[in-house]
Structure prediction request, 228 residues.
Amino acid sequence: MHYQPVYNKLTQSCTGTEALLRWTLPSGDAIRPDIFISAAEAEGMIVPLTRHLLDLIADDVQHWLVAPGFHIGVNVAAEHLQHPALVDDMLAFADKIKHTPLQITLELTERSLIKDGEDVARKLDRLRAEGMKVAIDNFGTGHCSLSCLQTFSLDYLKIDHGFINAIESLSGETPVLDAIITLSHKLQLEVLGEGVETALQYRYLHQRGVTFIQGYYARPMDNRAFVA
Prediction:
């Protein structure tokens, strides 16, 4: 497991992280996540792979010293979201980490919400009733951006880095980004900017009320480095 910190501009500290699976061969060569995750989906292995990921996270977090409400973001694939065992899998994970102060956040892509919408909505409502949060990852790049905001109960929007990259000056025009931020605020959703790499981008988002920041100022790191 690797973990990428999430920075909270209100507390000026790390108040969460996204859990990211990495695969390194015995030779030391790394397989890119987009390759092995796509392969796992094609081979029907993404659900057991995600269960393995949850077990690894549960082992790591037992030793974290974090404040109550510290978020652990877990990516859930479309196949798992539509799988009959999703709720049981996530509740089992929650039980394994119940002695920690962590807040579980399910990170979903818009693509994963297209199929079986009503059934998925019921599952997410059940998990939210159990105290979990729901985030839409890479918002604005999928196929159902606006419809999913009406259909599903959500807590966070993670704005795709492509929109963040459009910030070239504090006085520049980024109408799509500004519209997403404004819409999120009207819907009372928390906003996270992904792929933030420059002070200019940070200041732009800060001025528009974006609370959470994630980017390569803090790259994904292994558990030991993250704890340090």
